[in-house]
Amino acid sequence: MGFFEPWWIMRVFIVLLMAPRIHGWGKEGHYVVCKIAENYLTEDALAAVKALLPDRAEGDLAAVCSWPDEIRFHYRWSSPLHYIDTPDFRCNYQYCRDCHDSVGRKDRCVTGAIYNYTMQLMQEHDDTDLSAVKYNLTEALMFLSHFVGDVHQPLHVGFTGDEGGNTIIIRWYRRKTNLHHVWDTMIIESALKTFYNSDLTTMIKSIQNNITDAFADECSSENCKGTVCPDPYATESINLACKFAYRNATPGSTLGDDYFLSRLPVVERRLAQSGVRLAALLNRIFSKHKSIASE
Ligand SMILES: *[C@@H]1O[C@H](CO)[C@@H](O)[C@H](O)[C@H]1NC(C)=O
Ligand SMILES: *[C@@H]1O[C@H](CO)[C@@H](O)[C@H](O)[C@H]1NC(C)=O
Ligand SMILES: *[C@@H]1O[C@H](CO)[C@@H](O)[C@H](O)[C@H]1NC(C)=O
Ligand SMILES: [Zn+2]
């Protein structure tokens, strides 16, 4: 197909339109996270998830894990919930300091959203009080599953000044794009083409084969007492952003094999971690035998 074919121009146009702050992990990334999570759900959690999924998901959580990106224009209020901006070059994250939107409204960031939607699902699950606020739990589940993925994408916890790499224009091999998009999408797409014969299922299998106990959720440890602990995930992300994503990716640079091959293991590990942790979280939320006494 020619470079100037209308469909190609349309694509460029759409990509340009959508470029600023639109994506989480791309569609593939979120699909991978939720597919992995499905394999670690308990029977109780799987049943609860299936009951909440919209019909079009046909019982598959992964089918709707990109939904929050699709409705971002429609639900404008949800846009800041996909990321966190941290102070430039500090390479750290603090909930109180950083979790707000661009006009300073507190809790409006990805970790705030994870707390929010966990709380909604927990309340409904626990409460028999009919006067309690009713949330749309189908949306809560889709938001939560998506945001647990997003908080693991290193550049979703990036610097304020470059909007998490969105304003860092670089080349990915020969293609002009921005650094944020490389981490959402391009590394995964290049890996699919280079190593997995463009087959997402094969890629998911390889990532899964690598999963070990080391991926287990720190929520069980003493650094987190509640049902959900997104803050350590955000801290890991900004650390990885500084160590891997921003490094050697200055504006105008061309990223190729060196960058791709050294960063791909980081991406694969983050996808695996999000999947395992999402499952652990949903298992806690939908556990039929919750007991505070056992903590
Ligand atoms: C919490 O969820 C509700 C319902 O979707 C939404 O209106 C609100 O903006 C959310 N707040 C945060 C911080 O996620
Ligand atoms: C809950 O949200 C889903 C997805 O946006 C929507 O299709 C459904 O109609 C909503 N349910 C209610 C009761 O509003
Ligand atoms: C599996 O783990 C090894 C060692 O950490 C890493 O180099 C490789 O990229 C991983 N592969 C996948 C598919 O995650
Ligand atoms: Zn997102």
TrEMBL record:
What does it catalyze?
Endonucleolytic cleavage to 5'-phosphomononucleotide and 5'-phosphooligonucleotide end-products
Gene3D superfamilies documented for this protein: P1 Nuclease
> Which CDD domains is this protein grouped with?
S1-P1_nuclease
Q: Which UniProt keywords apply?
A: Disulfide bond, Endonuclease, Glycoprotein, Hydrolase, Metal-binding, Nuclease, Signal
Which InterPro entries does the entry mention?
PLipase_C/P1_nuclease_dom_sf, S1/P1nuclease
Protein known as = Aspergillus nuclease S1
Q: Which family does it belong to?
A: Belongs to the nuclease type I family.
Organism in which the protein naturally occurs: Rehmannia glutinosa (Chinese foxglove)
Tell me the first and last residues of the signal peptide: 1-24
